[in-house]
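Lecture 7 notes: from sequence to structure.
We start with the chain below.
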Amino acid sequence: MPHELLAQYLNAIEQTILTYPNLYIDRYTEEILTRDRVNLRIRIRIQQSNLLEINEAIVIFDDQLTTLDYRYHYQDGQNQLIFRYDSTPHFPNLTIFPHHKHLPHTVIACEKPETQQVLQEAISIVTYS
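Predicted structure tokens for the same chain:
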């Protein structure tokens, strides 16, 4: 049984996903490693072609949710990158290392977004393009 904070977080993510139309969930995995740690892996198809992958490693530390690692990857139906947020430490010169955002032709410093924000960003790209 996960810690109550983890359970609330996972439930909030699931409920957010369920509020959007035109989503197809390829995979939804909550890997509960310990009471205080979970890995979340989600693959979502948006309007049957674009793919959003959500990967998070989350732990409870000092009674607060802490993200150990994350990757939010969004690509179009031709497998072309639209954006990817991640914390992989491969751009040490960025101001808020290791947090960054990949765009089709550049990488920028960027704070870790909330998972719900990433989902909204991906859906708005499809909706307004």
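Points to note: The beta strands are 23-34, 37-46, 50-61, 64-75, 81-86, 100-103, 106-109. The chain has one domain: 4-128.
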